[in-house]
Design goal:
With about 300 residues, this protein is α+β, with helices and mostly antiparallel strands. The chain has two domains: about 5-165, 2-Layer Sandwich (Ribosomal Protein S5, domain 2); about 170-300, GHMP kinase, C-terminal domain (Alpha-Beta Plaits, 2-Layer Sandwich), CATH 3.30.70.890. It has helices at about 55-70, 95-110, 115-130, 135-145, 185-195, 200-220, 225-240, 245-255, 280-290, and strands at about 5-15, 25-40, 45-50, 75-85, 145-150, 160-165, 170-175, 260-265, 275-280, 295-300. Helix 1 runs parallel beside helix 2 (about 95-110). It starts with a strand and ends in a 5-residue tail after the last strand. The chain binds (3R)-3-hydroxy-3-methyl-5-(phosphonooxy)pentanoic acid. The site of (3R)-3-hydroxy-3-methyl-5-(phosphonooxy)pentanoic acid has 15 residues, from helix 4 and helix 5.
Length: about 300
């Protein structure tokens, strides 16, 4: 009858994670997979979570949801989630969830939320998850476009994304490797290293930002090889910053040997998590990886879609 449904897309960062936190641009696109939310009228705002989550994850999610509910609040809605993405592995599932919930709360309040409004409310939730997020995750999720994103100076404002048009289909394989460390922890450890050796780290952040800008230009020019090369160089720099690990490196090389034009970790990195590879034919890579027991899927981030 009067149940509502909303969606928040997952995201993948092609270039510039971490350096985006320090004000440099990042290139990120939406996944077709995301988090679905269903809402029904209720006596008070309530979030029903999948039973697979740990106690700590539940506490975090409920805290974030309650913060957003307080901002919108009326009329109350009971929200249940249906995640199509593995939660907490660096695919922007927290942002996807935030966007799905934000859209639901706004919709229940009788608004047809624009992507900007959804992003603004999702931002309040993201701050609970990440502490000082750059905003790239929830902005990409809400806009559902390939974006060259830059954080605004000042921690309290959301950044801006510029749409990047792709004349070619931009197809990726996302594969999971090892156990992932929490984003907050990886970001904090990097902050300590860069505080100790600021010039060395700033040089690398700046270079990562350049790769993101160059990557966006390569996309617009339809030069997937140039984009792939930028991804490979970015992986080397992420590794230099201490953000990679054996499981991530092994998966990067596996994707390259399966024909990736470029492959790198995506998201926070650390002990494990997600790896992204750029492919012209992602399906055959997915078949082979799946046969080898790797959790993976393909997605198109931008460009013309086959009918
Ligand atoms: O939480 P993840 O794995 O999607 O990573 C977020 C990307 C970072 O650049 C590492 C953090 C941020 O706030 O942009």
């Amino acid at each position: 009858g009067n149940s509502l449904s909303t969606f928040g897309a997952g995201k993948v960062i092609l270039l510039g994670e971490h350096s985006v936190v320090y004000g440099h641009p990042a290139l990120a696109g939406p996944l077709s997979q995301g988090v679905k939310a269903r809402g029904v009228p209720a006596k008070k705002c309530q979030l029903v979570l999948p039973s697979t989550l740990s106690r700590a994850q539940r506490t975090l999610l409920l805290g974030a949801f309650n913060r957003a509910a307080k901002l919108v609040g009326e009329p109350p809605v009971k929200v249940s989630l249906d995640p199509e993405l593995p939660l907490a592995v660096g695919l922007g599932s927290s942002a996807a969830l935030s966007v799905a919930c934000a859209r639901m709360l706004l919709l229940a309040a009788g608004k047809a939320p624009s992507s900007k409004e959804a992003a603004r409310l999702a931002w309040a939730m993201e701050q609970e998850f990440h502490g000082t997020p750059s905003g790239v995750d929830h902005t990409t999720s809400a806009e559902e476009q390939l974006l060259l994103y830059r954080k605004q100076p000042g921690a309290s404002s959301v950044g801006k994304g510029k749409t990047v048009d792709s004349p070619r289909a931009l197809k990726v394989v996302v594969a999971l490797a090892g156990e992932r460390s929490p984003t907050k922890k990886t970001v904090a450890a990097l902050r300590q290293r860069q505080a100790r050796w600021p010039e060395r780290y700033q040089r690398i952040f700046k270079e990562m930002g350049k790769l993101a800008s160059e990557g966006a230009k390569a996309v617009e020019a339809g030069d997937l090889e140039a984009l792939g090369d930028a991804m490979n160089v970015n992986q080397g720099l992420l590794s230099a910053l201490g953000l990679s690990s054996t499981p991530l490196e092994e998966m990067v090389y596996r994707l390259r040997s399966l024909g990736a034009l470029g492959a790198k970790l995506t998201g926070a990195g650390g002990d494990g998590g997600a790896v992204v590879g750029l492919f012209t034919d992602p399906e055959s890579a997915v078949v082979q990886l799946t046969r080898q027991g790797v959790r993976c899927f393909s997605s198109q981030l931008a460009g013309p879609r086959a009918l």
